[in-house]
Amino acid sequence: MIGISAKVTLAMLLALPTCGTSRPAATAARPPATAQDSAHTEIAPPAVAPIVVGAEQLAKYLPQLQNKRVGLVINQTSRVGNTYLVDTLRARGVNVTAIFAPEHGFRGEAADGATIKDGRDARSGVPVRSVYGKTKKPTPEMLADVDVLVFDIQDVGARFYTFISTLHYVMEAAAELNKTVLVLDRPNPNGNLVDGPILEPAHKSFVGLDPLPIAHGLTVGELATMLNGEKWLAGGRRCQLTVIPLAAGYTHATPYHLPVRPSPNLPTDQAIALYPSICLFEGTNVSVGRGTTTPFEVIGSPTQPATRPYSFTPQPNAGSPTPPLNGQLCYGLNLADAPTRSESTGLVLKYLLDFYQQSTDKPHFFGKYFEELAGTTTLREQIIAGKSEAAIRTSWEPGLTKFRALRRKYLLYPER
Protein backbone atom coordinates (compact mmCIF):
# COMPACT_ATOMS: atom_id res chain seq x y z
CA MET A 1 0.00 0.00 0.00
CA ILE A 2 1.18 3.48 -0.84
CA GLY A 3 1.28 6.48 1.50
CA ILE A 4 1.32 9.68 -0.53
CA SER A 5 2.44 12.94 1.04
CA ALA A 6 0.53 16.10 0.28
CA LYS A 7 3.24 17.71 -1.84
CA VAL A 8 3.99 14.58 -3.84
CA THR A 9 0.28 14.00 -4.39
CA LEU A 10 -0.24 17.53 -5.67
CA ALA A 11 2.70 17.30 -8.05
CA MET A 12 1.45 14.00 -9.46
CA LEU A 13 -2.06 15.30 -9.94
CA LEU A 14 -1.07 18.49 -11.68
CA ALA A 15 0.73 16.34 -14.21
CA LEU A 16 -2.43 14.37 -15.03
CA PRO A 17 -4.41 15.15 -18.17
CA THR A 18 -6.73 17.53 -18.27
CA CYS A 19 -39.70 29.20 15.19
CA GLY A 20 -38.48 31.18 17.00
CA THR A 21 -40.79 33.69 18.67
CA SER A 22 -38.97 36.92 19.34
CA ARG A 23 -39.86 39.50 21.88
CA PRO A 24 -40.62 42.98 20.54
CA ALA A 25 -37.08 44.22 21.10
CA ALA A 26 -35.51 41.35 19.16
CA THR A 27 -34.57 41.59 15.52
CA ALA A 28 -35.01 38.46 13.41
CA ALA A 29 -32.04 37.02 11.54
CA ARG A 30 -31.80 37.25 7.76
CA PRO A 31 -34.55 35.23 6.10
CA PRO A 32 -33.40 31.59 6.09
CA ALA A 33 -34.73 28.58 4.21
CA THR A 34 -38.14 27.49 5.45
CA ALA A 35 -38.99 24.13 6.95
CA GLN A 36 -40.45 23.15 3.60
CA ASP A 37 -37.11 23.66 1.87
CA SER A 38 -35.02 20.52 1.50
CA ALA A 39 -31.57 20.27 3.03
CA HIS A 40 -29.92 20.88 -0.31
CA THR A 41 -31.64 24.21 -0.96
CA GLU A 42 -29.27 26.67 -2.56
CA ILE A 43 -28.64 29.93 -0.71
CA ALA A 44 -28.00 33.20 -2.49
CA PRO A 45 -24.24 33.63 -3.05
CA PRO A 46 -22.29 36.83 -2.53
CA ALA A 47 -20.22 38.21 -5.39
CA VAL A 48 -17.00 36.20 -5.20
CA ALA A 49 -14.66 34.76 -7.80
CA PRO A 50 -15.56 31.19 -8.80
CA ILE A 51 -13.57 28.35 -7.26
CA VAL A 52 -13.01 25.19 -9.29
CA VAL A 53 -13.44 22.23 -6.97
CA GLY A 54 -11.91 18.79 -7.44
CA ALA A 55 -15.12 17.19 -8.72
CA GLU A 56 -15.29 19.69 -11.59
CA GLN A 57 -11.87 18.66 -12.92
CA LEU A 58 -13.10 15.50 -14.62
CA ALA A 59 -10.13 15.12 -16.94
CA LYS A 60 -7.87 14.66 -13.95
CA TYR A 61 -9.67 11.70 -12.43
CA LEU A 62 -11.95 9.98 -14.96
CA PRO A 63 -9.02 7.96 -16.38
CA GLN A 64 -8.45 6.52 -12.89
CA LEU A 65 -12.04 5.23 -12.78
CA GLN A 66 -12.06 3.47 -16.13
CA ASN A 67 -12.69 -0.27 -15.88
CA LYS A 68 -13.07 0.05 -12.11
CA ARG A 69 -15.95 -0.73 -9.80
CA VAL A 70 -16.55 2.60 -8.07
CA GLY A 71 -18.10 3.33 -4.69
CA LEU A 72 -19.12 6.91 -3.94
CA VAL A 73 -19.00 8.45 -0.46
CA ILE A 74 -21.22 11.43 -1.18
CA ASN A 75 -24.16 13.56 -0.14
CA GLN A 76 -26.19 16.50 -1.46
CA THR A 77 -23.06 18.68 -1.74
CA SER A 78 -21.38 16.24 -4.14
CA ARG A 79 -22.07 17.98 -7.43
CA VAL A 80 -20.48 19.00 -10.68
CA GLY A 81 -22.17 22.32 -11.29
CA ASN A 82 -25.80 21.61 -10.51
CA THR A 83 -25.62 17.90 -11.33
CA TYR A 84 -25.11 15.23 -8.69
CA LEU A 85 -21.75 13.51 -8.96
CA VAL A 86 -23.34 10.08 -9.29
CA ASP A 87 -25.29 11.23 -12.36
CA THR A 88 -22.24 12.98 -13.83
CA LEU A 89 -20.09 9.86 -13.55
CA ARG A 90 -22.72 7.43 -14.79
CA ALA A 91 -23.35 9.65 -17.82
CA ARG A 92 -19.66 9.22 -18.65
CA GLY A 93 -19.76 5.46 -18.41
CA VAL A 94 -18.30 5.02 -14.92
CA ASN A 95 -19.39 1.76 -13.28
CA VAL A 96 -20.83 3.05 -9.99
CA THR A 97 -21.58 -0.04 -7.90
CA ALA A 98 -22.46 1.56 -4.56
CA ILE A 99 -23.23 4.81 -2.77
CA PHE A 100 -22.12 5.13 0.87
CA ALA A 101 -24.44 7.46 2.77
CA PRO A 102 -23.04 9.46 5.76
CA GLU A 103 -24.94 11.44 8.42
CA HIS A 104 -28.06 13.13 6.99
CA GLY A 105 -28.14 10.58 4.15
CA PHE A 106 -27.28 10.61 0.47
CA ARG A 107 -29.70 13.45 -0.28
CA GLY A 108 -28.85 15.31 2.94
CA GLU A 109 -32.41 15.43 4.19
CA ALA A 110 -32.24 13.28 7.35
CA ALA A 111 -32.32 15.06 10.70
CA ASP A 112 -29.28 15.34 12.93
CA GLY A 113 -28.38 12.02 14.51
CA ALA A 114 -31.04 10.10 12.57
CA THR A 115 -30.03 6.55 11.66
CA ILE A 116 -29.42 6.20 7.93
CA LYS A 117 -30.74 2.99 6.38
CA ASP A 118 -29.58 0.96 3.42
CA GLY A 119 -31.62 1.31 0.25
CA ARG A 120 -31.38 2.13 -3.41
CA ASP A 121 -31.15 5.47 -5.18
CA ALA A 122 -34.46 5.87 -6.98
CA ARG A 123 -32.99 7.81 -9.89
CA SER A 124 -29.87 5.80 -10.70
CA GLY A 125 -30.81 2.45 -9.21
CA VAL A 126 -27.43 2.29 -7.43
CA PRO A 127 -27.47 0.52 -4.03
CA VAL A 128 -27.13 2.90 -1.07
CA ARG A 129 -25.20 1.56 1.95
CA SER A 130 -25.32 3.38 5.26
CA VAL A 131 -22.17 4.45 7.05
CA TYR A 132 -24.13 6.33 9.70
CA GLY A 133 -26.00 3.83 11.82
CA LYS A 134 -24.84 0.64 13.47
CA THR A 135 -22.07 0.53 10.87
CA LYS A 136 -19.87 3.60 10.54
CA LYS A 137 -16.86 1.86 9.01
CA PRO A 138 -17.50 0.04 5.72
CA THR A 139 -17.29 -3.72 6.19
CA PRO A 140 -15.54 -6.14 3.81
CA GLU A 141 -18.99 -7.24 2.60
CA MET A 142 -19.94 -3.64 1.82
CA LEU A 143 -16.77 -3.19 -0.22
CA ALA A 144 -16.78 -6.55 -2.00
CA ASP A 145 -17.91 -5.01 -5.30
CA VAL A 146 -15.76 -1.85 -5.02
CA ASP A 147 -12.24 -1.20 -6.33
CA VAL A 148 -12.09 2.58 -5.83
CA LEU A 149 -13.81 4.72 -3.20
CA VAL A 150 -14.46 8.33 -4.26
CA PHE A 151 -14.94 10.74 -1.34
CA ASP A 152 -16.60 14.03 -2.27
CA ILE A 153 -18.32 15.73 0.67
CA GLN A 154 -18.25 19.38 1.73
CA ASP A 155 -16.70 19.95 5.16
CA VAL A 156 -16.83 23.07 7.37
CA GLY A 157 -13.51 22.75 9.21
CA ALA A 158 -14.64 21.62 12.69
CA ARG A 159 -13.37 18.43 14.33
CA PHE A 160 -16.85 17.41 15.47
CA TYR A 161 -18.45 17.66 12.00
CA THR A 162 -18.89 13.95 11.39
CA PHE A 163 -18.05 13.78 7.68
CA ILE A 164 -14.32 13.80 8.48
CA SER A 165 -14.87 10.85 10.83
CA THR A 166 -16.53 9.08 7.90
CA LEU A 167 -13.44 9.93 5.81
CA HIS A 168 -11.21 8.37 8.50
CA TYR A 169 -13.19 5.13 8.57
CA VAL A 170 -13.43 4.91 4.78
CA MET A 171 -9.66 5.27 4.48
CA GLU A 172 -9.13 2.76 7.27
CA ALA A 173 -11.36 0.16 5.60
CA ALA A 174 -9.68 0.79 2.26
CA ALA A 175 -6.22 0.32 3.81
CA GLU A 176 -7.25 -3.01 5.33
CA LEU A 177 -8.75 -4.31 2.09
CA ASN A 178 -6.25 -2.88 -0.39
CA LYS A 179 -8.76 -0.52 -1.99
CA THR A 180 -7.95 2.89 -3.47
CA VAL A 181 -9.38 6.15 -2.10
CA LEU A 182 -9.82 9.15 -4.39
CA VAL A 183 -10.62 12.43 -2.60
CA LEU A 184 -12.17 15.21 -4.67
CA ASP A 185 -11.18 18.27 -2.68
CA ARG A 186 -13.43 21.17 -1.73
CA PRO A 187 -12.68 24.43 0.13
CA ASN A 188 -12.89 24.70 3.88
CA PRO A 189 -15.09 27.78 4.53
CA ASN A 190 -13.22 28.16 7.85
CA GLY A 191 -9.92 27.31 6.19
CA ASN A 192 -7.77 29.88 7.95
CA LEU A 193 -9.09 29.09 11.43
CA VAL A 194 -6.88 26.84 13.57
CA ASP A 195 -7.90 26.99 17.21
CA GLY A 196 -9.12 25.13 20.26
CA PRO A 197 -7.93 22.30 22.47
CA ILE A 198 -6.42 19.19 20.86
CA LEU A 199 -8.53 16.03 21.17
CA GLU A 200 -7.32 13.80 24.00
CA PRO A 201 -7.44 10.00 23.46
CA ALA A 202 -9.80 9.49 26.42
CA HIS A 203 -12.49 11.52 24.61
CA LYS A 204 -12.26 9.86 21.21
CA SER A 205 -15.69 9.35 19.61
CA PHE A 206 -17.42 9.74 16.26
CA VAL A 207 -17.40 13.52 16.81
CA GLY A 208 -13.63 13.35 17.21
CA LEU A 209 -11.40 10.48 16.09
CA ASP A 210 -8.04 12.14 15.59
CA PRO A 211 -5.78 14.51 17.60
CA LEU A 212 -7.04 17.69 15.96
CA PRO A 213 -8.00 21.04 17.49
CA ILE A 214 -11.65 22.04 17.32
CA ALA A 215 -10.94 24.11 14.18
CA HIS A 216 -8.32 22.29 12.11
CA GLY A 217 -7.88 24.64 9.13
CA LEU A 218 -7.57 21.83 6.57
CA THR A 219 -9.48 20.83 3.47
CA VAL A 220 -10.62 17.20 3.35
CA GLY A 221 -7.83 16.50 0.86
CA GLU A 222 -5.21 17.90 3.19
CA LEU A 223 -6.69 16.05 6.14
CA ALA A 224 -6.67 12.78 4.18
CA THR A 225 -2.96 13.14 3.50
CA MET A 226 -2.41 13.88 7.20
CA LEU A 227 -4.32 10.76 8.28
CA ASN A 228 -2.12 8.72 5.96
CA GLY A 229 1.15 10.50 6.65
CA GLU A 230 0.81 10.45 10.44
CA LYS A 231 -0.36 6.81 10.42
CA TRP A 232 -3.50 7.65 12.38
CA LEU A 233 -5.49 4.86 10.74
CA ALA A 234 -5.86 1.65 12.78
CA GLY A 235 -2.67 -0.35 12.97
CA GLY A 236 -0.69 2.53 11.49
CA ARG A 237 -1.82 1.49 8.03
CA ARG A 238 -1.83 3.77 4.99
CA CYS A 239 -4.36 3.54 2.20
CA GLN A 240 -3.72 4.01 -1.50
CA LEU A 241 -4.69 7.68 -1.71
CA THR A 242 -5.03 10.23 -4.47
CA VAL A 243 -6.28 13.79 -3.95
CA ILE A 244 -7.68 15.89 -6.79
CA PRO A 245 -6.90 19.40 -5.53
CA LEU A 246 -8.75 22.64 -6.08
CA ALA A 247 -7.67 24.54 -9.18
CA ALA A 248 -4.77 26.98 -8.94
CA GLY A 249 -5.55 30.27 -7.21
CA TYR A 250 -7.27 28.92 -4.10
CA THR A 251 -5.77 29.82 -0.71
CA HIS A 252 -6.90 29.17 2.83
CA ALA A 253 -7.94 32.81 3.06
CA THR A 254 -10.10 32.69 -0.08
CA PRO A 255 -13.74 33.47 0.83
CA TYR A 256 -16.05 30.62 -0.08
CA HIS A 257 -19.82 30.65 -0.15
CA LEU A 258 -21.23 27.12 -0.07
CA PRO A 259 -23.69 26.79 -2.97
CA VAL A 260 -25.50 23.96 -1.17
CA ARG A 261 -26.07 23.84 2.57
CA PRO A 262 -23.76 21.17 4.00
CA SER A 263 -26.34 19.87 6.50
CA PRO A 264 -29.93 20.72 7.44
CA ASN A 265 -29.05 23.02 10.33
CA LEU A 266 -26.29 25.04 8.63
CA PRO A 267 -28.35 27.11 6.20
CA THR A 268 -26.29 30.32 6.01
CA ASP A 269 -22.70 31.51 5.74
CA GLN A 270 -23.01 33.09 9.20
CA ALA A 271 -24.14 29.80 10.76
CA ILE A 272 -21.21 28.00 9.14
CA ALA A 273 -18.74 30.61 10.38
CA LEU A 274 -20.15 30.44 13.93
CA TYR A 275 -20.44 26.65 14.02
CA PRO A 276 -16.92 25.83 15.36
CA SER A 277 -17.56 28.12 18.33
CA ILE A 278 -21.28 27.69 18.93
CA CYS A 279 -21.41 23.88 18.64
CA LEU A 280 -19.87 23.56 22.11
CA PHE A 281 -23.26 24.67 23.47
CA GLU A 282 -24.65 21.34 22.25
CA GLY A 283 -22.96 19.82 25.28
CA THR A 284 -24.83 22.18 27.64
CA ASN A 285 -28.42 23.02 28.56
CA VAL A 286 -28.38 25.91 26.06
CA SER A 287 -30.13 25.62 22.68
CA VAL A 288 -28.26 26.56 19.50
CA GLY A 289 -31.52 27.16 17.68
CA ARG A 290 -32.30 23.68 16.41
CA GLY A 291 -36.03 23.70 15.88
CA THR A 292 -36.02 27.34 14.72
CA THR A 293 -35.50 28.94 11.32
CA THR A 294 -32.10 30.28 12.46
CA PRO A 295 -30.05 27.32 13.76
CA PHE A 296 -26.52 28.18 14.89
CA GLU A 297 -27.36 31.88 14.70
CA VAL A 298 -29.24 32.03 18.01
CA ILE A 299 -28.44 30.71 21.48
CA GLY A 300 -30.68 30.63 24.51
CA SER A 301 -32.08 28.68 27.44
CA PRO A 302 -34.91 28.83 30.00
CA THR A 303 -32.14 29.01 32.61
CA GLN A 304 -30.81 32.33 31.30
CA PRO A 305 -32.02 35.70 32.58
CA ALA A 306 -35.30 36.90 31.07
CA THR A 307 -33.57 40.22 30.48
CA ARG A 308 -31.57 38.74 27.61
CA PRO A 309 -32.27 40.77 24.42
CA TYR A 310 -33.68 37.87 22.37
CA SER A 311 -35.94 34.90 22.94
CA PHE A 312 -37.16 31.95 20.92
CA THR A 313 -39.06 28.70 21.38
CA PRO A 314 -37.72 25.57 19.62
CA GLN A 315 -40.40 23.63 17.76
CA PRO A 316 -40.12 20.43 15.69
CA ASN A 317 -39.21 21.02 12.05
CA ALA A 318 -37.73 19.09 9.15
CA GLY A 319 -34.14 19.50 10.33
CA SER A 320 -34.88 18.80 14.00
CA PRO A 321 -37.99 16.67 14.63
CA THR A 322 -37.18 16.55 18.37
CA PRO A 323 -35.12 19.66 19.11
CA PRO A 324 -33.49 20.21 22.50
CA LEU A 325 -35.68 22.34 24.80
CA ASN A 326 -38.67 21.66 22.55
CA GLY A 327 -41.52 24.03 23.35
CA GLN A 328 -39.60 25.92 26.03
CA LEU A 329 -39.09 29.67 25.92
CA CYS A 330 -35.37 30.33 25.66
CA TYR A 331 -33.72 33.63 26.58
CA GLY A 332 -30.48 34.50 24.86
CA LEU A 333 -28.85 36.19 21.90
CA ASN A 334 -29.36 36.57 18.17
CA LEU A 335 -25.93 36.26 16.53
CA ALA A 336 -27.01 36.89 12.93
CA ASP A 337 -24.76 39.92 12.70
CA ALA A 338 -22.28 39.08 15.45
CA PRO A 339 -18.54 38.65 14.87
CA THR A 340 -17.63 35.05 14.05
CA ARG A 341 -14.09 35.34 15.38
CA SER A 342 -12.64 36.68 18.61
CA GLU A 343 -10.19 39.56 18.69
CA SER A 344 -7.37 37.05 18.34
CA THR A 345 -9.11 35.68 15.20
CA GLY A 346 -9.83 32.44 17.01
CA LEU A 347 -12.91 30.69 18.33
CA VAL A 348 -15.45 32.87 20.11
CA LEU A 349 -15.46 31.79 23.76
CA LYS A 350 -17.11 34.81 25.35
CA TYR A 351 -20.65 33.49 24.80
CA LEU A 352 -19.90 30.18 26.52
CA LEU A 353 -18.22 31.88 29.49
CA ASP A 354 -21.01 34.45 29.80
CA PHE A 355 -23.85 31.92 29.55
CA TYR A 356 -22.30 29.76 32.27
CA GLN A 357 -21.84 32.74 34.57
CA GLN A 358 -25.42 33.93 33.95
CA SER A 359 -27.01 30.48 34.25
CA THR A 360 -29.60 30.00 36.99
CA ASP A 361 -28.85 26.26 37.01
CA LYS A 362 -25.07 25.93 36.97
CA PRO A 363 -25.03 22.34 38.33
CA HIS A 364 -26.84 21.16 35.20
CA PHE A 365 -25.25 23.54 32.69
CA PHE A 366 -22.84 20.93 31.32
CA GLY A 367 -23.78 17.50 30.01
CA LYS A 368 -21.59 14.44 29.38
CA TYR A 369 -21.49 15.29 25.66
CA PHE A 370 -19.51 18.46 26.37
CA GLU A 371 -16.26 16.54 26.83
CA GLU A 372 -16.70 14.74 23.50
CA LEU A 373 -17.15 18.06 21.71
CA ALA A 374 -14.37 19.87 23.55
CA GLY A 375 -12.08 16.85 23.36
CA THR A 376 -10.84 17.45 26.90
CA THR A 377 -12.08 17.67 30.50
CA THR A 378 -9.96 20.76 31.10
CA LEU A 379 -12.24 23.26 29.35
CA ARG A 380 -15.21 22.47 31.59
CA GLU A 381 -12.97 22.77 34.66
CA GLN A 382 -11.59 26.11 33.47
CA ILE A 383 -15.05 27.56 32.87
CA ILE A 384 -16.34 26.43 36.27
CA ALA A 385 -13.24 27.90 37.88
CA GLY A 386 -13.97 31.27 36.28
CA LYS A 387 -10.87 31.36 34.09
CA SER A 388 -10.73 34.20 31.57
CA GLU A 389 -10.79 33.65 27.82
CA ALA A 390 -7.17 34.81 27.66
CA ALA A 391 -6.10 32.25 30.28
CA ILE A 392 -7.95 29.47 28.51
CA ARG A 393 -6.35 30.39 25.19
CA THR A 394 -2.91 30.40 26.78
CA SER A 395 -3.45 26.81 27.93
CA TRP A 396 -4.19 25.77 24.32
CA GLU A 397 -1.02 27.23 22.86
CA PRO A 398 1.47 24.37 23.42
CA GLY A 399 -0.82 21.92 21.62
CA LEU A 400 -1.72 24.38 18.89
CA THR A 401 1.92 25.27 18.24
CA LYS A 402 2.73 21.60 17.61
CA PHE A 403 -0.36 21.12 15.47
CA ARG A 404 0.31 24.18 13.32
CA ALA A 405 3.80 22.87 12.58
CA LEU A 406 2.33 19.46 11.70
CA ARG A 407 -0.37 21.06 9.55
CA ARG A 408 2.18 22.92 7.42
CA LYS A 409 3.60 19.59 6.23
CA TYR A 410 0.29 18.68 4.59
CA LEU A 411 -0.97 21.95 3.15
CA LEU A 412 -1.80 21.76 -0.54
CA TYR A 413 -2.65 25.47 -0.76
CA PRO A 414 -1.04 28.73 0.43
CA GLU A 415 -2.26 30.30 3.64
CA ARG A 416 -2.98 33.56 1.78
What does this protein structure show overall?
- The protein is of the alpha/beta class and 416 residues long.
- The protein has two domains: 6-18 and 51-257, Rossmann fold; 269-401, Aspartate Aminotransferase, domain 1, CATH 3.90.1150.
- It is 24% helix and 13% strand.
- The chain is built from ten helices and 14 strands.
- The chain has helices at 6-14, 58-65, 85-91, 163-177, 220-229, 269-278, 350-358, 369-374, 378-384, 389-408, and strands spanning 69-74, 79-80, 83-84, 95-101, 119-120, 127-130, 148-152, 180-184, 194-195, 215-216, 240-244, 298-301, 310-312, 330-334.
- α4 (163-177) links the parallel β7 (148-152) and β8 (180-184).
- α4 crosses α5.
- The longest helix is centred in the C-terminal third of the chain and has 20 residues, at 389-408.
- The chain is globular and about 65 Å long.
- The two termini are 34 Å apart.
- 50% of the residues are buried.
Shape: globular
**Would you tell me the structural class of the helices and strands?**
alpha/beta
The helix content is 10-25%
Rounded average pLDDT: 88
Largest beta sheet: what is the strand line-up?
5-6-4-1-7-8-11
Order of secondary-structure elements: HHEEEHEEEEHEEEHEHEEEHHHH
Short description:
The protein is of the alpha/beta class and about 425 residues long. The chain has helices at about 5-15, 60-65, 85-90, 165-175, 220-230, 270-280, 350-360, 370-375, 380-385, 390-410; strands at about 70-75, 80, 85, 95-100, 120, 125-130, 150, 180-185, 195, 215, 240-245, 300, 310, 330-335.
